Model the fold of this input.
Amino acid sequence: MRELKLKAMAKINLGLDVLRRREDGYHDLRMIMQTVRLYDRVRLVQTERPGVSIHTNLSYLPANADNLACRAAQLLIDEFQIGQGVRIDLQKHIPVAAGLAGGSADAAAVLVGVNRMFGLGLSQEELMRRGVKLGADVPYCVMRGTALAEGIGERLTQLPDAPDTYVVLAKPSVRVSTAFVYGNLKADQLAFHPDIDAQAQAIRDGDLHEMARLMGNVLETVTVPAFPVIEEYKACMLRRGALNAMMSGSGPTVFGLFEDRDSAQAAYGELARLGTVKNLFLTRLFHNRRRVPDE
Done:
């Protein structure tokens, strides 16, 4: 197989709780992860010349080993001593540094693709174990769908598909550093912790309203005071009929869940008129049992 095309799909966090700061500097998390139908396009081409090269539609992305997609391909090439090389053509649509795991999704797609291209025979679980070497979100991006994530995000339990719904995603122009967010989080002083177990049960019950009601992200305790636009976007979505709205990951992207397309479009339109939204999308959840074929 000399050429392969895949979709690298973004994620949102339906719930994100931080339990404690660990001695190694990381934080123990409990999260509900959910894939959405927003994706980068990844094209892999087998080359006779060894090595990995990458070409993207964004000039500011690294086109070398600093790019997680390159490191993913090199990881498998080195482990299995593959004599050929891989060219990666990456069309980015997931906003960068947005709390949507775009880089991790690209790396996951490359792991899946290189495994398939060279007939390595690795299972999904084996790919996930390798993915954690690249980043905490990579194993989830290999798995996709709806999952409970624990530890630093690498311990995953697949959940039934979340109830389907429309999703509006709005990323402001501000830049939010993940290091800043976690560095300023007072994990031992949080007054609120989302009920991740109850939300997982709502998903098992297929209860969209309860799943949405239980949304919560403790990282907003850092980002909202520093970047009030996040709260502004949430309020706009709720005004327009969102079942709930929340920041994804460490931000700054805000998403809202909408039961019908009309209210989602109304929120999309109002957000567009604000003039402060850098990236704006209207999409839906992605479900593993109804996979969109790779194109």
The CA atoms of residues 24 and 141 lie 24 Å apart. The chain has two domains: 3-159, 166-288. Residues 102-117 form the longest helix (16 residues).
